[in-house]
Each structure stands twice: as structure tokens, then as C-alpha cells.
Amino acid sequence: MCLLSVSKDNLIRLTRIINTTSKFYHISCMSPLRMAVISYDDHRPARMLSVDGVKSDFDHVTFHVKTYKIDESMCTYVQSKNTLVLTDREAHTVYIYDNLNGTSIAVTNNNIREPCSAL
User: Fold this and answer.
1) Buried/exposed 51-85: b ≥16 CB within 10 Å, e otherwise
2) Which 8-state DSSP code applies to residue 81?
3) pLDDT (tens digit per residue) in 46-98
4) What is the count of structural domains for the chain?
5) Is 1 inside any structural domain?
């Protein structure tokens, strides 16, 4: 995984390369030293990754047991709310996980059909 930075002059620079065996398709900033990385083909749809390459699980989040392919689910981390939002296309469900107090909610509704983005 390559971490890039953009200067005020819009110059893009490679700042770090992190070697990992996991498959990630989305990165969200949690803090200057930690990111939420969204994975596929893994029983954990989201993990935390430090800029030093150390992976860890979310402390207060228990995901439902399911392994997604890349087109079956999307997930994003909302930094201002310390919350993960995960979509499940086949279940027509949006899951919202609160990373601070460990609560979660599954949103199902007749208006939610094959949700394809959490961004």
C-alpha cells in the first residue's frame, strides 16, 4: 500500500510504502498515525492500520460473521462520529457500528435495495 501526500502546490509525493498481505480497497483517516482500512475476502470487513504497518482490530466493534467479495459490500469510517458504516448488498442492509461504546444498528427498510456505497 502506498501512502501519498499532496502539497499546497498540488504536488503529489510518495510518503511511505506499507507491505501487507491483506486486500484493502478503501482507506479512511482516523488520526495522523492510524487509518481504518476496508478489506475484502476477509472475515473482518474493516481493520485499523498504523503508518508503521501494524494491523489491529477495532476494540469495541463486533462484526457479524460474513466474508464479502469486493462487490458485495462497501464500508467507510466516519471520523467525526468515530463510526463505521458497512453495506451488505445481498441482505439489503446498512450496518452502523459505534467504535467508542460498541453499539451497532442494522438498518433495513423497503427503500434500501442492494446498497452499493457507504461513502
Assistant:
1) eeeebeebeebebeeeebeeebbbbbbeeeebbbb
2) G
3) 899 999 889 998 888 888 778 888 878 888 889 899 899 988 888 899 999 99
4) 1
5) no
> Which residues, at least 6 apart from 25, have a Cβ–Cβ distance to it below 8 Å?
38, 39, 40, 70
**Stated pTM of the model:** 0.78
**Residue 19 to residues 1, 27, 77, 90, 115: CA-CA distances in angstroms?**
6, 15, 22, 32, 31
| Residue 79 CB partners (closer than 8 Å, separation 6+) | 28, 29, 30
Range of the domain at 69: 14-108
Residue holding cell 469486493?
A: 70
